[in-house]
Structure formats: structure tokens, C-alpha cells
Amino acid sequence: MQPETNFKAKVQKRLRLIPDLYTIKIQQMSLRGHPDIIMCFRGKFVAWELKVPPNKVKPGSLQAFNLASIQRAGGVAIEVTPENFEERLKELLCL
Fold this sequence. Notes:
Layout: H1 3-15, E1 22-25, E2 37-41, E3 44-50, H2 61-72, E4 76-80, H3 85-93
Parallel strand pairs: 3-4
Antiparallel strand pairs: 1-2, 2-3
């Protein structure tokens, strides 16, 4: 498996352990530019764009536009990497 595929699997496995967390994994082949994982937790809309360096460090322009649109609408939209995953998970649990 590719590093990004492994990371996505790890993230999904951990998220499934959180009670009352609703998640949707977006299939990139069908919806370009949308975040990889969309969630609802404690009434808050959360979108995570998963990136695995060194190949994919920054979101593309359409991804960045969609993340910014989610933030303007009052949701939480962030990039998650293997390096910041534990920190982002803690932030999610504090919502």
C-alpha cells in the first residue's frame, strides 16, 4: 500500500473508536477537491484533508478553496498529516 493509503486507514481506524462521531470518507475519484474525511461531532461540522509528505504537502487550489469555504461557513477544516495527527485528534475531542 501507498503511504497515503496506510495513513488514511490508520486515521479511519482511530476515528471509529470515538463514540457519537459521524464520518464520511470521500472517494477522490468521484469528488475532486473535497476533503478526505467529513465529520459531525458534538454538533460541529469538521473536514480533514489528509496529506502525507513529501509527495503531498499542500492542498491543491480547489482543495484550499473548499477548506476555506467550510471555515467561512463556521465549520472546522484542517490539514492532517502523520506528524500532526495526534494533535489534531486531541483538538477534535475538545470540540
